[in-house]
Amino acid sequence: MSDEVEKAKEAAADFEHSGKDGAGPPTVFDKLLSGEWKCDKVHEDDMCFAFRDIEPQAPVHILLIPKNRDGLLKLSLAREDQTPLLGHMLYVAQEIGKKECPNGFRLVINDGEHGSQAVLHLHIHILGGRQMKWPPG
Prior knowledge:
- 29% of the residues lie in helices and 18% in strands.
- It has helices at residues 3-17, 28-34, 83-100; strands spanning 41-44, 48-52, 60-66, 105-108, 124-128.
C-alpha cells in the first residue's frame, strides 16, 4: 500500500472519530495558515492561500486551500453557500497554473479515503512543469 493511501486511511479514521461536526481534526494546513509553520507561499488573498508542496509529485506542485475551512474538509461536503469560494479557488488555481506552467497544468482534488485525500482540509493540487500522463490513478 502506498504512503498516500495509508495517509488517506488515517485521515478517514480521524474524520470518523472527530464527531463529523464539520470542524474536523486539526491539520498541517492550520499550522501553515497560523504562521506556526513556514512555507513557500505562492499566493494569498482574503479567501485562499497557495504554497509549494514539500513532497512534490511534479516539477511544479502547488497546493491551494481556503483560508477558512468552514466545514470544507473535502469537496463532497461543500455547501451551496460556498459556491463563490469554490469558483474563486478555481479561478486562482488557473491563474497560478498559467503563470507557473505556461505549457499546461493539471488540477487535482482528492476526496475521501478512496480518493486518497490525506489532509482533511479541501485543497487543490496544481501540477505541471512536465508532460502529465493518463490515466492518473
